[in-house]
Amino acid sequence: MAERLKDPATRARIRQEMDDPHPTWENRLISAGTWHNVQLASIRQPAYKKFEGMRVDEAAKAAGKEAYDFVFEILIAHNGNVGCVWFIIDENDLKLAMQQPWVSVGSDGSALAISGPLRSGVPHPRNFGTFPRVLGKYVREEHVLSLEQAVHKMSGLTASQLHITDRGLIKEGLAADLVIFDPASVADRATFTDPFQYPVGIPTVIVNGRVVLDEAATRANGPGL
To answer: Max CA-CA distance within the chain?
Structure first.
């Protein structure tokens, strides 16, 4: 792919097809509407690291290039592998999906940390804030779900969908995986520009009966760590 992107004729064809307002294939750029709705999240090459966290149109401008040419160039430099965040989801669609009884809650994220080797790039804030965002924004503030519905979608429903039989419920004989949170204060703090922030309002986490987080202090060598 990287070799093909170096060919002027192939670039011209790609631009033409991506600008087609009625594509016959999933065109994320059409879904995003503009290059401004595509944020560069993960870049490996040092020469391009300065563009991490920038929107594509802003990065292209800073590089003194047209957006398509900048995208082709950065893809070639990374052999086609550049992590991005796409701003394409409609909030009303999200709320409608969330209210369906068969929809559970998942982060679709990665195991990251605010420091050390697991801190890299400018990733999607879902890696740090998915579950507290549901509890704070969609339960407490906007009443999209009840607290009981949200908790079930994060625990029992998820376990049943994944056919996990020893977790997901508070029940004798099951693994004691418990998250103790304050419904009045739990909230996400991660943002698209500053995603490496842990949530608030979750003082204690217990994994398989052992405390791994207690008042924001992690316990060394605990399960799940």
So the answer is: 66
Cβ atoms of 68 and 11 closer than 8 Å? yes
pLDDT band, very low/low/confident/very high, at 225 (cuts 50, 70, 90): low
Name the residue among 194, 60, 190 with its Cα closest to residue 122: 194
Regarding pTM above 0.85, the answer is: yes
Task: Say how far apart CA 211 and CA 99 lie, in whole Å.
Answer: 32
